[in-house]
Amino acid sequence: MINCDTTRIVSASVIINNHNYGRFLKEAIDSALDQSYPNTEVIVVDDGSTDNSREIIATYGDRILPVMKENNGQGSAFNAGFLRSTGDVVCFLDSDDALLPLAIQRAIRIFLETDAVKVHWPLWIIDEHGRKTGKIHCPVLPEGELGESLMRYGPPRSLSPPTSGNAWDRSFLEKVLPMPEEEFKINADCYLYTLAPAFGQIKRLTDPQSLYRIHGQNHYESKTFEQRLKIGVRDYDKQCLALCRFFKDRIKVDHLQAWKENSWWHRLELTIQEIAGLIPAEDSLILVDDGAWGIDGAIAGRRCIPFLEREGQYWGRPTDDANAIQELERLRRAGANFIVFGWPAFWWLKYYFGLCQYLRLNARCVLDNERSIVFDLRA
User: Fold this and answer.
1) How much is the average pLDDT of 66-85?
2) Residue 224 is assigned to a structural domain of this protein
3) What would the pLDDT profile of 253-295 be if each residue is shown by its tens digit?
4) What is the DSSP letter of 63?
5) Are 194 and 200 in contact, with CB atoms under 8 Å apart?
6) How far apart are the first and last CA of the chain?
7) What CA–CA distance (Å, rounded) separates 194 from 159?
8) In 3-state terms, the chain is what percent helix, strand and coil (to 5)?
9) Half-sphere exposure at residue 248, Cβ-oriented, CA atoms within 13 angstroms
């Protein structure tokens, strides 16, 4: 770890991983070169691009260190870039994102003052043209000694921002890289942020230090709900496997089973299967999940109506029980035959006690477990 000596001059590496994002690449490179921290090298790894990316990289000359390789995925780009890097602090930057000028300087200050293995921060969300949307990705992030919780409960769902919101201590990366390239062709950042808490402290910056671009072709953001769910389950299983490789003497089979039973993604996958088994195909349901599940309009072909709803969009929470019951009946008359309460919104059944009593008296509860509660409104 970096010696906690605030007089020491440390070096930094920004490693940009790129594949066919030539239209965004210049902004990413410029943001790395424009860092206020002077002792920062910029490495650009091109993972077999077939667009104009390599021509753009060539225009920077010796201001950057280019690494050209055949396409083999993000994990291989991380590995190749790290091998060429020299920084005490390393930031991996996706080529469709950008760093704000003080990002590296502010991260290094924390590394010098603590024994952190990782410093992370929120990100401003920008559109395809680089305009801020006003929204922040990962506005609240954890920090501290999280290793014990990791080993007890398994990889959490929201431990880390995406790639461009993290800086890593080199000594940690030397312990865990190279990462398995076939397993982490995509979402390579989840390999690092899964392992980091087991090696030391996680620290945070509260203000956004990066720009996170949503442009319709993001690997994750552009997917349907069902696709995102599959990615989540798959990545969680890979995260568990990564932990087992490093800590096989501490992790038993029953630990892994408990992790998966309690994981957000496996719980959600099972819940969706249960809902699909109860509600007829092409039927409609009212979904109360506080927006946490990320449903994009349907569950396994069953239309989902947010609650409260106006013209198909989420309108906010009911003002009181009377408002909730009125809206429930309006949606029932419009053809909604079921209402589903997901576990993130179980508090509704206590807070809106009148609504709960109304449902118990006027509908039939067809599922009630620790994941979801479903009422058949046709009764």
Assistant:
1) 98
2) no
3) 777 888 888 899 999 999 999 999 999 988 999 999 998 898 8
4) G
5) no
6) 63
7) 8
8) 40, 25, 40
9) 4
Give the start-end residues of each E strand in 108-259.
116-120, 123-126, 132-137, 166-169, 201-204, 210-213
- Reported as a pLDDT band with limits 50, 70 and 90, residue 165 is very high
Place of tokens 């039927």: 283
Order across the sheet with 338-342: list the strands.
298-299, 302-306, 284-288, 338-342, 372-376, 364-368
Pairing relationship of beta strands 372-376 and 364-368 according to DSSP bridges: antiparallel
- The domain of 71 spans 12-216
22 occurs within a structural domain = yes
Give how far the C-alpha of residue 262 lies from the chain's centroid of Cα atoms, to the nearest Å: 18
For residues 284 and 212, state if they share a domain: no
Give me the DSSP letters along 112-143: HHS-EEEEE--EEEE-TTS-EEEEEES-S---
For residue 203, the cross-strand partners are 119
Same domain, 187 and 42: yes
Number of other CB atoms surrounding residue 298 within 10 Å: 15
Does residue 21 sit in the same domain as residue 108?
yes
Same domain for 42 and 121? Answer: yes
pLDDT digits (tens, 9 = 90+) for 190-247: 999 999 999 999 999 999 999 999 987 666 666 788 988 999 999 999 999 899 888 8
- Give the pLDDT score at 4: 47
Instruction: Identify whether 238 is part of a domain.
Output: no
H helices, E strands: number in the chain: 13, 19
Q: Which of 133, 95, 98 is nearest to 209 (CA)?
A: 98
Tokens describing residue 356: 């709960």
DSSP states along 280-297:
PTT-EEEEESTT-S---S
What CATH number is attached to the domain comprising 158?
3.90.550.10
Are 168 and 285 found together in one domain?
A: no
Number of structural domains the chain divides into: 2
Q: What does the alpha-carbon distance between residue 43 and residue 270 come to, in Å, rounded to a whole number?
A: 42
